[in-house]
From TrEMBL:
Organism listed in the record: Pelodictyon phaeoclathratiforme (strain DSM 5477 / BU-1)
The name this protein goes by in its record: DUF2283 domain-containing protein
Pfam families: DUF2283
Upper taxonomic lineage: Bacteria, Pseudomonadati, Chlorobiota, Chlorobiia, Chlorobiales
Domain of life: Bacteria
PANTHER family xref list: SSR1768 PROTEIN
Amino acid sequence: MKVKYFEDTDTAYVELLDKPVFETREISENILIDVDEKGNLVSMTIEHAKENAGLWEFSYQEIPHRETA
């Protein structure tokens, strides 16, 4: 996954998969998603990212798998 932030436009681009984009869909006024030809999410664009996505704080945490008995 790659996250790019463009300060001049306050836009965040989140690339989930390195695949060709088949279609871009508008989810809301400020959020667009790109999907492959099977409808799988490839990337997402968030406009006004600091306001709409709390981009001023970004963290990543991997949660280990715990087996249940």
